[in-house]
Amino acid sequence: MRYKLFTILLFITVGFFFANGASAAITSGNYTLKLSGGDYSSWHDFWTDLGSDLTGDITLTVDASAFTENSATLAIVNLQGYTLKVTAATFPSTTDGSTGPRFTFNNDSYFWSITNSRGPGTIIIEGIVFIKGTGTSASVFDLNNVLVPLTFIARRNIIKGGSYAFLINDTDPTYYIYNNIIFNQTSTGWAGGIGCSTGAGFTGFWSNNTIVDVTGVIGGRGITNNSVGSVDNNLVYNSLTQDFGYIGNNCTGFNNSSYDATADDFKFGADNRINKTDSPFTNYDADDFTLAPGSDPIDNGTSSPSAYFTDDFFGNTRSEPWDIGAVEYVPSIVTSAGFFTVSAWVKPTTAIATKAIAVKNNEIRLVTDSSGKPVCQIHNGTAWQTAVTSTVALTLNAWQYVACTYDGTNLKVFVNGISQGSQALTENPADTINVWQLGKDAGSTYGYFQGVMDDVQIYNYARTPKQIMEDMNAGHPAVGSPVGSYTGYWPMDEGNGSTTYDKSLSKNNGTLTGGVQWTNNGKFGKALSFDGADDYVIATDPNHTSANLTVSAWVKADTFDATVSSILMYRALVSGWENNRFQFFLTSAKKLSFGIGISSTGYVTVGNTAFVAGTWYHVVGVYDGAKVRVYLNGIEDQPSPTSAIGDVNNNSAWDLYIGTGTSVTLTNYSWDGLIDEVK
Asked: pTM score, two decimals?
């Protein structure tokens, strides 16, 4: 047998230490964990503060913020029949670990252990995001030698990284682990999503979890249970060795799905599975694990989904026949069944009022009203239903992104990625044979669109707000539209080697210099990690002359420089950045700054938002020929941008530096943290 699931731990307990100046251990009550203003600001401090014997129920509510923990947490508690619950003030709204209460842990041991804790009683962990940061890989939840009859429940959590999400080595406990999203587990040895070795007295189940990308130097298994319990309705994808390895003969469970379906993905329990060969997810590279249309592993008739799983990860009622994994299935529904998304980039040039954008007559229409506000409406076969109208109007001679979605419950309209109106509605659009017309209304209620239109998209389901934003930012419409055809694009997804490749037509590949490291913890897949000292990437300048320039990236800082932390900069070997092309950096106040050089004058705009370490931000710098603008997470971060006019400086000999601000003194302006998706 190549695999052993053992954890040998030695603990010497010499007393209890109290966080935040507490004078006595806590044994009951309600508490909050916040960055500031709460009862606690650290996960470690709360658990260290627990008394050895509870006298009542305890609830810890965690704020939806990004926390950093540098110490392993060992909790030894006698529940005395009570419940200890950790819950989210706001549950995660995305599956990539970027929302909700989220803890990045930097140590070489486990994140949290309840070894030697005792029941009777219950511990519940729900709605929390756990992200492995620096340090060697270690288990997130280490559950070893828990004394009966303790019940442990983990539900609706996101666990990214670590060697194991749950490492269980116990005799007779009760565990319920369900509706969790687990991904990117890795280790220098074995890695796993859920690994369990228990005794004959164990009860519980592992159900409706989504587990993705489990790797290790020796091997990786999504779920391993070599003892007893129920393993059912789990969706496991892309494990290195097996998606389901060593599922014991005493285990029960059905309807587990292994999507990559290699020969040994089910080491045992061959009858308790459904195999698929295609990726099931809508946007796998962006850590979005919502099931895609048509990929649903239909119930094989042997599953009896428990009442525990009537809701998906987001708390939504599950749609039949989907019952596998943690996240919601996007039904493969055509517009005749009611769901749709229609979107377009538009630039009205002459008139804006009462114009057609995209219309399928007597079915769906996206238009503007008499004030130029986008309107979306459906026809149920008898009459046009109540429309949704944007709160903001379009403007002349400017590109704007307009979208409308309908999910059978709400009709919504978006402008530039932001929801600007919602109308409750349960009517389905009529199923007509009419064709879609762009810029024209066959019903003659709305006039012909006057202007330029680009990148029209129509879906047979309702895109989420996050997907609307992705569509707006990721399209490649014609030259002159806001997204434009990029002249340089470095996804930073190679994961090894000394080159990051330019995916644009320019093919200006970047060279990693000074020890830049690859990481699997990027915003979208992999990314580059810079040490703040001498790391940078150098690439040839995408040489173009224009009065328009857009630069963007996803960035996450580990620490901030005392002066500035450079993100990107075009740089020539001349004095004064104003003589160069542009600079993109954080000020000493941790605010985003974008500056361009025109002739020998520099024009700079500084944003209003101070960055927080350990948080991903989408940063954009724009020069449109009139203003220098900065955008943060899709929102303009400075309402009073600096004016400028003329073409930015350009020289084909100049190079692009990523992660540093100058080719002369590299240590002055170096970025400490991660950079991803540079355009």
From this structure: 0.51
